[in-house]
Specification:
The structure holds 2 protein chains of 2 kinds. Chain A contains 10 helices and 11 strands. By secondary structure, chain A is an alpha/beta fold. Chain A starts with 5 loop residues before the first strand and ends with a helix. Chain B has a 9-stranded mixed sheet with strand order 1-5-6-12-11-10-7-9-8, with helices on both faces. In chain B, a hairpin with a 5-residue loop joins strand 3 (68-70) and strand 4. Classes of the chains: A alpha/beta, B alpha+beta. The interface between A and B is medium-sized, with 23 and 25 residues.
C-alpha cells in the first residue's frame, strides 16, 4: 500500500493529473480502467468531484490533492498547504457579458449595481468588492452562460479555457480576474508528519 | 432567502450541548491532564470569561474574537478568545512583584470566530499552562516536557510535536535584504500555508538564484535534528536557539519532536520557539504554543514567558481515532 493518499479530481484536470502521476512512478492503470470505483488503496489514489478535493485534504482524509486554483480561491478558509503550481489546466476567471453594448456597464452606470451569475459567488463578490463596485450575486450550479441570455443576470463570472463556450453563447470577456492552473495541495499535519514522503514526491515532480 | 439565527435555530452556530457519555470521557481526560499540571507545579487559575476588549495601556489584541458585547456603561467586552492574554493580565496585576518563575495552568472555555469544521467549535475547551519568568531555552524545554506528558496522560500514543522558531525566517529574510513590506507579505503567505505565493514573492524580489533557493528551502525544512545540521552557515547560526532547546530535552521528549522551520503560528505575540501538536489519527493540529517574551511588558511587567494550549475536544477526537486504528 502507498504511504501517501492523493485526492485526484474527476473532471477537467483528470487526464493530465493521471498522466503526471504516471510520469512520477505512480501506477494509475487501475484508475483509468475503473470509471466507477473511487478508492484505489494500492496506488494511494482517491477520486472525487474537483470541488471536494480541498475538503478531503483539509480533514486529513487525503494527504495530498490536486485541484484548480479556482477551487482554492472560492474556499480561502480551507486550511491546506498550497505546495506547487503544476502549470497544467490553465484557465482564466473572467467577467463576461453579451456581445455588443455591455449591459453590465450600462446597469452599473444607470442603476449603480450589476447582477452577476456565477458558480463562484465568493470570487465574484470579492472581485467586485475589491474594485469598489456594488454587485448582486446570483449563484447558479451550471450552464452559467444561460443567465445573461435569459435576463437572469447582466453578466457572468466564470472560468474559461479557450473561450469557445463563451463565443458560442455570444458572450465576450470584459475583464480578467485571475489566471488559474492546477495546484498540488497538502494536509498541514501530513506535511509535517510525512515530510520525507512528501519531499520525495516533490523531488520527483521537480525532476520532470 | 437567507437563513439567520431566529425562530428555527436553538443554539448559536459553533456551539453545542455536552451529554453525559461525552462529558464522562472529557472529564476523565481533563482530570488526568490536571494531574500532570499539578505535579509539575502549575497551579490552576480561573479568570472571567468576559474581559474588556481593550486593556489599559496594553496593545495586546485578542486573537480572532468571536463575540463582543456592551456592559451597562457602554464599555466593549469580549468573550476571551484565549487564556494567554488573561493570565498575562493576572500576572501583571495580582503578582506585580512576586518572585519568578510563576507557573499557572487552566482548563477553561475560550471563544473564537472559526468556521466550524472537523471538531472545531466557536466555544472550545482549552487545557494549558503558562510559565512566566523563565528564559529560553529552559522555559521552552519545560513547556514541551509538560506538553508531551499531558498528551501521554490523555491517552495518546502516536502524537508528534512540530517545533519551529518564529524568529528564524523573518531574520533570514531581513539578512537577505528583503524590505519589511515584502517580508510581511511573505510571512502572511507562509502562515496561510501558501508556498506558491511565497515562491512568487521571492521571485519578484529579484535575489540571486542561490539566495532565492535558500529562502524557498528553509520554510520547507521539516524532519529530525539532522535537518538543522546539513544546512549552510547562515541557517546554522539562525537555528542555534532551536538546537540548544533540543539539547535540553529528555530522549523520550526529543523523539517526539519534528523540526519544522516553516512553522510560523499566526498569533503575532510569539517571539521564539513555537510548537504544534499533531496526531496521525487526526488531520488537524490538536494544540500548540510557544515563547512570547514581549506580551507581559504590555501589561507592565516585562518578563519572558512560554506556554501551550490543548484543544480538549480535538484531543478527544484524536484519542478516539487512535483507539479505532488499534481496533
Amino acid at each position: 500500500m502507498a504511504d501517501l493518499r492523493i485526492a485526484v479530481p474527476r473532471g477537467a484536470l483528470f487526464a493530465e493529473t493521471l498522466e503526471l502521476l504516471d510520469r512520477i512512478g505512480i501506477d494509475t492503470a487501475e484508475v483509468r480502467a475503473n470509471g466507477r470505483k473511487l478508492l484505489f488503496q494500492e496506488a494511494g489514489i482517491v477520486t472525487m468531484r474537483p470541488a471536494d478535493v480541498p475538503t478531503y485534504v483539509e480533514a486529513g482524509a487525503a494527504d495530498l490533492g490536486i485541484t484548480g486554483r479556482d477551487v482554492l480561491l472560492e474556499h480561502p478558509d480551507r486550511d491546506v498547504h498550497e505546495l506547487l503550481d503544476l502549470g497544467f489546466g490553465r484557465c482564466v476567471m473572467v467577467l463576461a457579458s453579451e456581445a455588443g453594448e455591455d449591459r453590465a456597464a450600462d446597469a452599473m452606470r444607470r442603476l449603480g449595481v450589476v447582477r452577476i451569475a456565477t458558480k463562484y459567488p465568493r470570487v465574484a463578490a470579492g472581485f467586485f468588492n475589491s474594485t469598489g463596485r456594488q454587485a448582486e450575486i446570483v449563484e447558479v450550479k451550471g450552464s452559467v452562460e444561460l443567465a445573461p441570455l435569459t435576463g437572469l443576470a447582466d453578466a457572468i463570472v466564470d472560468l474559461t479555457a479557450t473561450g469557445t463556450t463563451l463565443r458560442e453563447n455570444n458572450l465576450v470577456v470584459r475583464e480578467e480576474i485571475a489566471v488559474c492552473t492546477a495546484r498540488l495541495i497538502a494536509n498541514p499535519a501530513s506535511d509535517t508528519l510525512k515530510a520525507a514522503e512528501i519531499d520525495a514526491l516533490l523531488g520527483r515532480l521537480d525532476g520532470l | 432567502m437567507s437563513v439567520h439565527a431566529g425562530s428555527g435555530d436553538r443554539l448559536p452556530s459553533g456551539t453545542r450541548d455536552v451529554l453525559p457519555d461525552e462529558m464522562r470521557e472529557l472529564r476523565a481526560m481533563t482530570d488526568r491532564i490536571r494531574g500532570v499540571f499539578e505535579r509539575a507545579g502549575y497551579g490552576e487559575v480561573h479568570t472571567p470569561a468576559l474581559e474588556y476588549e481593550r486593556q489599559p495601556d496594553a496593545a495586546a489584541a485578542w486573537p480572532m474574537p468571536a463575540y463582543r458585547l456592551f456592559d451597562e456603561h457602554g464599555n466593549v467586552l469580549v468573550l476571551r478568545s484565549d487564556m494567554t492574554v488573561p493570565i498575562a493580565r493576572l500576572v501583571a496585576t495580582r503578582y506585580a512583584s512576586a518572585p519568578v518563575p510563576l507557573r499557572f495552568s487552566y482548563v477553561a472555555h475560550a471563544y473564537r470566530s472559526v468556521a466550524p469544521k472537523r471538531g472545531q467549535s466557536r466555544e472550545f475547551l482549552q487545557a494549558g499552562i503558562e510559565l512566566i519568568g523563565e528564559r529560553a531555552p529552559r522555559g521552552s524545554a519545560e513547556a514541551l516536557t509538560v506538553l508531551c506528558e499531558s498528551l501521554l496522560a490523555a491517552g495518546l500514543r502516536d502524537f508528534r510535536i512540530g517545533l519551529g522558531d518564529a524568529t528564524v525566517y523573518p531574520a533570514l529574510l531581513a539578512s537577505h535584504g528583503i524590505g519589511p513590506d515584502r517580508a510581511q507579505r511573505i510571512l502572511t503567505q507562509l502562515a496561510a500555508g501558501n508556498f506558491v505565493g511565497v515562491a512568487s514573492e521571492l521571485r519578484e524580489a529579484r535575489l540571486g538564484a542561490q539566495d532565492e533557493k535558500l529562502l524557498l528551502r528553509v520554510p520547507r525544512t521539516r524532519g529530525g535534528p539532522e535537518v538543522l545540521e546539513h544546512t549552510g552557515t547562515p541557517l546554522r547560526e539562525a537555528t542555534a536557539g532551536l538546537r540548544d532547546l533540543y539539547g535540553l530535552l529528555a530522549p523520550a521528549i526529543a523523539e517526539r519532536v519534528v523540526f519544522d522551520l516553516g512553522l510560523v503560528r499566526n498569533l503575532s505575540y510569539y517571539t521564539g520557539a513555537v510548537f504544534r501538536a499533531y496526531d496521525p489519527a487526526h488531520g488537524v493540529p490538536i494544540g500548540g504554543g510557544g515563547q512570547y517574551d514581549d506580551l507581559l511588558a504590555q501589561f507592565g511587567r516585562p518578563l519572558p514567558a512560554v506556554g501551550f494550549g490543548l484543544a480538549v475536544e480535538l484531543l478527544h477526537a484524536a484519542l478516539m481515532g487512535e483507539e479505532r486504528g488499534r481496533g
